[in-house]
């Protein structure tokens, strides 16, 4: 089992557990590392100074028991390119523009349908192509450590069926961005948030492309509650192995700051 999670939300944004509750649960699970990733986002809006102060307090309080990292999840639409005070950032796209509106791709079917119909004329492939291009831009905006839930745009595809996830044109648009990110030495996250529905972000076709291109992975649960800290890790590891990966990456403290280390799957 992986002894680390770096995609962790708390009551400071849209999580349901406090940071300290998350720390105590991580220690119970035998975690060696716990990275917090409060939303640096247009919605929900987080009190960043208070959040950073609390994570810093916990770093000191639990030093020697668990390595706590002060991270954030930076949304593409957030106006500040590189907010200060974070030790690492996960680059994500939750929102897209439709005219004067900024709509979430994952929050509700209603918002996604509005985005799809008003912004992209009902063309799901066109929407996904634009989404993947935004992911590439996210890296440049925030110098993030990796990309979170690469294909989150498909969050409601099981019910709306707006794009064929096996369509060669859809996969080609994703592969083009994956190839670019690999060239920038940027890992992709296997996000297990929806593992209970049998959904991992990204799925096998994109992970196989990532492996063929020489890319790397980070496995994180996108935990919003203490019960989710290690959610779906076994399933993610099995998927990664089936796609040709023999290791995942974790963030550790090295002589020059945070660096990636490999963990066998």
Spell out the key features of this protein.
single chain, 265 residues, alpha/beta, TIM Barrel, five-stranded parallel β-sheet, two-stranded antiparallel sheet, 8 helices, 11 strands, globular
Characterise the protein shown here:
The protein is α/β, with parallel strands linked by helices. The chain has one domain: TIM Barrel (Alpha-Beta Barrel). Helices cover 35% and strands 22% of the residues. The chain is built from eight helices and eleven strands. It has helices at 19-28, 48-61, 109-120, 124-142, 157-160, 168-183, 204-212, 233-242; strands at residues 4-5, 33-40, 67-75, 88-92, 95-98, 101-104, 146-147, 188-191, 217-220, 247-254, 257-264. The strands form four sheets. It has a five-stranded parallel β-sheet. The chain has a two-stranded antiparallel sheet with strand order 5-6. A two-stranded parallel sheet has the order 8-9. Helix 4 (124-142) packs parallel to helix 6 and helix 6 (168-183) crosses helix 7 (204-212). The longest helix has 19 residues, at 124-142.
């Amino acid at each position: 089992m992986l002894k680390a999670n770096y995609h962790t939300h708390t009551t400071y944004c849209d999580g349901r557990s406090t940071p300290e509750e998350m720390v105590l649960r991580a220690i119970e699970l035998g975690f060696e590392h716990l990275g917090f990733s409060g939303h640096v986002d247009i919605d929900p809006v987080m009190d960043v100074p208070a959040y950073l102060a609390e994570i810093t307090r916990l770093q000191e309080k639990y030093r020697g028991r668990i390595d706590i990292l002060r991270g954030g999840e930076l949304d593409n639409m957030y106006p500040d390119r590189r907010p200060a005070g974070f030790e690492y950032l996960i680059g994500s796209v939750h929102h897209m523009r439709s005219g004067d509106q900024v709509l979430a791709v994952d929050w509700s079917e209603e918002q996604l349908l509005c985005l799809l119909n008003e912004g992209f004329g009902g063309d799901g492939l066109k929407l996904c192509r634009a989404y993947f291009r935004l992911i590439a831009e996210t890296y440049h905006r925030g110098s993030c450590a990796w990309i979170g839930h690469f294909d989150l745009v498909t969050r409601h595809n099981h019910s709306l069926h707006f794009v064929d996830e096996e369509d060669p044109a859809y996969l080609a648009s994703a592969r083009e961005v994956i190839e670019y990110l690999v060239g920038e030495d940027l890992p992709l996250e296997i996000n297990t948030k929806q593992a209970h529905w049998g959904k991992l972000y990204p799925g096998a076709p994109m992970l196989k492309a990532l492996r063929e291109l020489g890319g790397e992975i980070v496995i994180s649960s996108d935990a919003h509650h203490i019960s989710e800290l290690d959610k779906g890790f076994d399933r993610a590891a099995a998927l990664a192995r089936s796609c040709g990966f023999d290791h995942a990456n974790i963030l550790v403290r090295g002589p020059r700051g945070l660096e990636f280390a490999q963990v066998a799957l």
